Amino acid sequence: IGADGANSAVRKAMGVQYLSWNYDQMGVVATLNLAEWKQYPRSSSVEAVTSWTSSWLRRVGLPDGTSRQLPPSICSIAANSRAAFPLAFGHSTRYIAPGVALVG
């Protein structure tokens, strides 16, 4: 089973053609310390979300426009956690062969 990404040695050993292109954009990631978070156990990924009670929303109302951020907000960014990576698309022309499967 090959789960070794865009530069897959397993895919190369299979001799499978790989079609790709770059979006000329960067993705940015960081570890954020939030005022409040919730993880959904049925989700396939780790998600941090903000949540509020309906009584809080009734009391403070919703802000106008997009320039205001609803709390809870980002308290800080963890040291040395920021990273950037190029966004690209890639697709193998085959994902299975006798005794081999590409999964990621």
From TrEMBL:
The Gene Ontology CC terms held by the record are:
mitochondrion
The lineage's top-level taxon is: Eukaryota
Q: Which InterPro entries match?
A: FAD/NAD-bd_sf, UbiH/COQ6_monooxygenase
Alphabetized PANTHER family for the sequence:
UBIQUINONE BIOSYNTHESIS MONOOXYGENASE COQ6, MITOCHONDRIAL
> Protein name, please?
Uncharacterized protein
